[in-house]
């Protein structure tokens, strides 16, 4: 498997190479922004056959799976005979579908309703709800709390089990959001190794992509692209169009960071097309945002800013404040490139109005660096 095999034989490889990547000549870092990336579908297997099938639909059409879950939840409101575990499982499906669609408020609400039904803490339903809730957390105190909670659960799960692999993946992603890639790479490499058996192919695909994000942040772009290719192969083989749209987007991010904005635009266009076909407004907004970045990198500031504005409006309508700020930061970068330093500074002051406390920690250092450039200009 080339560099992937080398990584797995040498767990420490790459850590000595961990470094701050120059971001558009010390501006905003794609690798840092990647930590706010999109979730994939259900990793665990729920203990109800019909809900397993519904959860699997999240990889194909998350909007449809969420709609069906909502219908089942509404029908269950007056059913006093329904066991609490099944009711919690319905919320688990809804929460994960909301997570795929980046509907953070709905995700948190569904996860909390499911957890309130007290499913056993060794049951996949509980673990699924725990994962879904964690995926909606972006602030530093919240992420630190989730890392502690997930670490405690991981410690008591048997290594090699589906639950252990899935929780490791989420724990590694939380560490990545906290800008702790030296920990995340170890956690996610373990998840990738443990998911090697064929019965865990679905989990392997998710572990590969999460690990790719960290490899990208460490500057190992070829490693990241190889891992992403593994994820794409599984998704293509299983008709997982919703997940594939996300993976094409992630591939574009790595290509952008590698310095190939033209190839990145091809990936973002493909991701946008699939998102439109799926009615995924968030997917369209993410593709617009990164198309903006790619165009700015190619010196097409006007076209880029139009994409950024479309993304900002969409994220604001959905209520994803962190991504609104990322769109504003890209606009500030374009203004700075065009010599409008005062306009860039005003935007960045708004983005950092809470000193970065409301932004994914991985992205914060580069935002301060960009504002320093604006101040200097």
Number of H/I helices: 19
Instruction: List how many beta strands DSSP finds.
Output: 0
Low-confidence stretches: 1-36
> Helical amount among residues, as a percent range?
over 70%
Oligomerization category of the chains in this entry: single chain
Helices and strands, in N-to-C order?
HHHHHHHHHHHHHHHHHHH
Description:
The structure is a single chain. Helix 5 runs antiparallel to helix 6. The protein starts with a helix and ends with a helix. It contains 19 helices and no strands. Residues 1-36 have low confidence and may be disordered. It is mostly helical.
Summarize the structure.
By secondary structure, the chain is an all-alpha fold. It is 72% helix and 0% strand.
How do the helices and strands line up, and which of them pair or pack?
Layout: H1 3-9, H2 30-34, H3 49-56, H4 62-76, H5 84-100, H6 104-116, H7 124-135, H8 140-156, H9 162-177, H10 181-194, H11 201-217, H12 221-237, H13 241-258, H14 261-278, H15 281-297, H16 301-318, H17 321-337, H18 341-351, H19 364-376
List keywords for this structure.
mainly alpha; 19 helices
């Amino acid at each position: 498997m080339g560099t992937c095999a080398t990584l797995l034989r040498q767990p420490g490889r790459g850590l000595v190479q961990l470094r701050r990547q120059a971001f558009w000549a010390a501006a905003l870092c794609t690798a840092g922004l990647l930590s706010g990336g999109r979730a994939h579908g259900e990793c665990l297997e729920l203990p109800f056959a019909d809900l397993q099938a519904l959860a699997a639909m999240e990889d194909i059409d998350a909007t449809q799976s969420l709609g069906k879950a909502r219908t089942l939840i509404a029908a269950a409101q007056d059913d006093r005979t329904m066991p609490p575990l099944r009711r919690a499982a319905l919320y688990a499906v809804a929460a994960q579908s909301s997570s795929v669609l980046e509907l953070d408020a709905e995700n948190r609400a569904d996860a909390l309703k499911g957890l309130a039904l007290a499913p056993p803490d060794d049951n996949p339903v509980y673990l699924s709800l725990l994962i879904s809730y964690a995926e909606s957390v972006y602030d530093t105190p919240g992420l630190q709390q989730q890392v502690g909670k997930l670490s405690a659960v991981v410690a008591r799960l048997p290594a090699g089990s589906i639950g252990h692999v899935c929780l490791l993946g989420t724990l590694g992603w939380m560490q990545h959001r906290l800008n702790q890639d030296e920990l995340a790479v170890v956690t996610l490499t373990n998840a990738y190794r443990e998911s090697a058996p064929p019965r865990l192919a679905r989990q392997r695909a998710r572990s590969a992509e999460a690990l790719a994000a960290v490899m990208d942040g460490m500057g190992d772009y070829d490693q990241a692209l190889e891992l992403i290719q593994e994820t794409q192969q599984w998704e293509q083989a299983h008709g997982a169009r919703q997940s594939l749209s996300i993976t094409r987007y992630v591939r574009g991010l790595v290509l952008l960071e590698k310095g190939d904005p033209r190839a990145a635009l091809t990936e973002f266009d493909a991701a946008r097309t699939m998102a439109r076909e799926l009615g995924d407004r968030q997917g369209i907004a993410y593709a617009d945002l990164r198309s903006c970045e790619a165009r700015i990198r190619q010196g097409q500031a006007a076209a880029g800013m139009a994409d950024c504005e479309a993304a900002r409006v969409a994220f604001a309508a959905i209520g994803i404040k962190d991504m609104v700020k990322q769109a504003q930061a890209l606009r500030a970068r374009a203004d700075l490139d065009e010599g409008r330093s005062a306009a860039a500074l005003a935007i960045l002051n708004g983005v950092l109005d809470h000193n970065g406390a409301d932004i994914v920690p991985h992205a914060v250092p580069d935002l301060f660096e960009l504002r320093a450039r604006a101040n200097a200009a």
